[in-house]
Amino acid sequence: MTIPFDLLLIQVINGIVTGMILALVASGLTLIFGIMDVVNFAHGELFMLGAYLGSTVFLTTGNFWLALGAAVMGIGLLGAVIQTTTLRPLLGRDPLTTILATFGLSLVLQNYALWQYGPVPRKINEPITGHFSLFYLEYPWYRLLVAVLSAAIIGGLWLFMKYGKYGIWIRATTQDRVMAAAMGIPVPLVHTVVFAIGAAMAAASGVLFGPLTGVNHAMGLDFILRAFIVVVVGGMGNLGGSILAAIFLSLLEAFASIWVSPAQAVIVSFVVLILTLLFRPTGLFVPTPK
Amino acid sequence: MTPDRLPEHGPPHGNGRGAVRPPILRTESLTVRFGGLTALNNVTLAVPRGEIRAMIGPNGAGKSTFFNCVTGVLRPTSGRIVFDGEDITGLPPHRISQKAIARSYQITNILPGATVLENVRIAAQSRHHSWSLVRHHRAFVDVIDRARAVLDAVGLGDKEEELAANLSHGEQRHLEIGIALATEPKLLCLDEPTAGMSVSETRATVELIRQIATDLTILIVEHDMEVVMGLAHTITVLHYGEVVAEGTPAEIQANPRVQEVYLKT
Amino acid sequence: MLSVQNVHTYYGKSHILHGVSIDVGPGEVVGLLGRNGVGKSTTLKTIMGLVRPSEGTITFEGRSVAGAAPYHLARLGIAYVPEDRRIFRLLTVLENLRTGLDRPGVPPERRDALLAKVYGSFPVLRERRNQAGGTLSGGEQQMLAIARAMMLEPKIILLDEPTEGLMPRMVAQIHEIIDVLHGDGVAILLVEQNVRLTLEVSSRVYFMEKGVVRHHAPAADLRRNDAVIHQYLGV
Lengths: 290, 265, 235
Description:
The complex is a heterotrimer.
Chain A: H1 5-36, H2 43-61, H3 64-87, H4 95-117, E1 131-134, E2 137-140, H5 141-163, H6 167-175, H7 177-182, H8 187-213, H9 221-234, H10 239-256, H11 262-279
Antiparallel strand pairs in A: 1-2
Helix pairs in contact in A: 1-5, 1-8, 1-9, 1-10, 2-3, 2-4, 2-8, 3-8, 5-6, 5-8, 9-10, 9-11, 10-11
Chain B: E1 25-34, E2 37-47, E3 52-56, H1 63-70, E4 78-83, E5 86-87, H2 93-98, E6 101-104, H3 116-127, H4 136-153, H5 169-182, E7 187-191, H6 199-212, E8 217-221, H7 225-231, E9 234-239, E10 242-247, H8 249-254, H9 256-263
Chain C: E1 2-11, E2 14-24, E3 29-33, H1 40-47, E4 53-60, E5 63-64, H2 70-76, E6 78-81, H3 93-101, H4 108-121, H5 123-127, H6 138-150, E7 156-160, H7 168-183, E8 187-192, H8 195-201, E9 204-209, E10 212-218, H9 219-224, H10 227-233
Parallel strand pairs in C: 3-8, 3-9, 6-7, 7-8
Antiparallel strand pairs in C: 1-2, 1-4, 4-5, 9-10
Helix pairs in contact in C: 3-6
């Protein structure tokens, strides 16, 4: 059975768009793991809280961009506070303690969100409405905007790490935190800042995602699950790898949904995860370890 | 302020080298390469039964690599290892243990949550376990007796109920030796047994090793020259993976090549 | 300037330093010799805050610094060049240098002057300034590790076995660099196994054995009478 070209192209675009948001969420996760060996199980909650905070600001100002900015700043700050109070004292201990800590954090944040915002879903309206004609489909401009924005944010992060004034501090601390400290780099501060950046990225993703599915407590639950898969498949701590993995997995799922329902298409991601763990556990997009 | 020299100790039989009986451990052209790096290069040596053999050499000389080959942790690139007449090259560690080679580690491998007696009993059990549930009860008593005997041999007899984590560092290292002894080895490999010990703890450990050496062959890697000179019958000096010299402590001390290797002057 | 008094350090239960005492005056080059496993590296790591002493004091310019965080010590003027060099493999040579150069309070002219000076001492680093650190040879990495420490404009550099694994030609370069640093008034605490180099550059030498300092003598005496050297380093 031949697949119509237009269907294929639509799925490619869908895959890339979803992939970019996924990459944004996964980048924050892998950045945090790469620098301080912390698996942030609260990442999904930061995503969700970002969306909620954004929706509140949107409600009062009616401006999407203000909502995005507020979410980024607010959740970034929350991330800094969380890291300083809960995670910094645990540095150097058994990794299991940090896993438990972030897991506990996720429970606290979930319940906080329920208490603060109530069970009623919220709304964020997309800043640009309207569709363009893509073959027989009316494709929303907003989806493209989301992909572009995600790419821009990730690109901005990459540029900052490579050329920014303190980018070197972050990269040095990721590679060898002991030697970075011996070079006068304030490692605890770098950890806090990176966690805040990761949290801010999660929040940005939440706000960007908001108009697509509505803001509710369960939003992006399977999205976050995919983000963890992306981080493992891309190589934990490998920023470029997680971006490639995000797009790769999203494309695979998009193609799979040509034949099965999207809910079943996620099986593809799990299959890739299992294969990665079996044959290339350090990550598919990582150079072969020596 | 010269530290006291430990009393000299002669070889157990005759000249201690090239004795009448075949060597218990023999390597032939043992070579280990990691990519471009040659960790061991054509190491051929023979350790007679009952000897205390020390391996010394500067950092990176290949001592740990040699140990790892003999105890099955590492597979040599080429060459052979023959133990008690049997080729054991490339055998995995659990098979090596069955051949009666035991090893103590630089970082202690004791079970901190178990008592001293339990630690040793588990090792003793590995030697004589049977699958039969019926015989189990009586065999258990034998194992405990054996474990107790080992504890006495290493001087921990009065601490059998103590949690291993509560022992001092020196006692923990002795426990480690006890665990190795409990497997009833013919060859005991000791990896820097006095590392991190005070002078008095070191002396106690040297005494212990001397006592247990009576019906055992011991291979020991050490940096502490006093320990090495006082304990060893024969010393093998490694440098960059090759055997540079071999002989009695007096011969090694008088060997200018060895001084060169160590002093790099 | 740097005073280590009766320091005890443990790795878990392993008692590595049994009361080490060492002094380094401003601008002095002091050697620390001893066989493997006696605790020389551990002494440097304890001074640099990479490992916490359980007992004893460490003072630097009158301030008590035992157990202080490494980045604080680097800011105070203590630089560390570890035994395995530990350059940042994925950063370029220039970026490696910048980890020490990018400090608050360094105006651009001084930055450029520092860079120029280090490129002058190590021309090969200028050549390779945009290459990833991991692609450098062993000797070049050692140069980079020392140059990186120099970027901190330290008052004292803790040098851990800089000549290990280096060819004689590079050992001579290390000698030159130590002379340059000494000329600039930088103090050096040099841990080494290369006796000749140590005697040539140091004014005083400590000898360690089993976690304690056992002997201490001016280098001049040791050059005349090497019995002590054989005792603590030989076989």
